[in-house]
Design brief:
The protein is mainly beta. The protein has 2 domains: about 80 residues, no CATH class; about 90 residues, OB fold (Dihydrolipoamide Acetyltransferase, E2P) (Beta Barrel). It contains 2 helices and 16 strands. Strand 3 and strand 4 form a beta hairpin.
């Protein structure tokens, strides 16, 4: 089941299920305890509990899951990564040859490499934190770290070059010239 939620006004949403059924003007508001919500659909109110299951930091394509409980009923809603993150995934989260840039303003939690270090596909390169979410940027190919443009504890702006990696193919080509 594919669910698309569009915010109409603060606290009011249109919900489309499988691109076929649209429920308009769904009202939702937080009540009392963390994760408790009062949801009103077509003049019927439901008290639900929402528990977030964050995506694995080691996977680019993971989605957040929202587990929604109402009495004995349970539903799981998958929240895909934002479009900007998906669009940048090839360039930013899967580090290969070239430069690694910050996808958004972030805090550098850790720099896992040094200049001259040989990295293998899957090695962690930089750990960023943004909006209370940690993101591990990993190498998608073998290569050598050419330069590092950030330090642990530093705030970096969107688009800033964090690490430059020269892939094995580039290194081998340069040696042949």
């Amino acid at each position: 089941m594919h669910v698309h939620v569009t915010s109409i006004t603060p606290g009011t949403f249109n919900v489309t299920i499988d691109d076929k059924v649209t429920v308009a003007n769904v009202k939702a508001e937080l009540v009392g305890q963390e994760g408790k919500m009062l949801v009103t659909i077509e003049n019927r109110s439901y008290e639900v509990t929402v528990v977030s299951q964050k995506p694995a930091a080691t996977s680019v394509n993971s989605t957040e899951r929202l587990h929604v409980f109402e009495g004995e009923k349970r539903a799981c809603v998958q929240v895909p990564p934002p479009a900007w993150l998906s669009a940048l995934a090839g360039d930013v989260l899967a580090v290969g040859s070239g430069t690694l840039k910050a996808p958004m303003p972030s805090l550098v939690v850790d720099v896992k490499v040094t200049v001259g270090q040989v990295v293998q596909k899957g090695d962690p390169i930089v750990v960023l934190e943004s909006m209370k979410t940690e993101t591990v940027l990993r190498a998608s190919a073998n290569g050598t770290v050419q330069s590092i443009g950030c330090t642990k504890g530093e705030m970096v702006e969107e688009g800033r070059t964090l690490v430059d990696i020269k892939g094995d193919e580039e290194t081998n080509e340069a040696a042949r010239i």
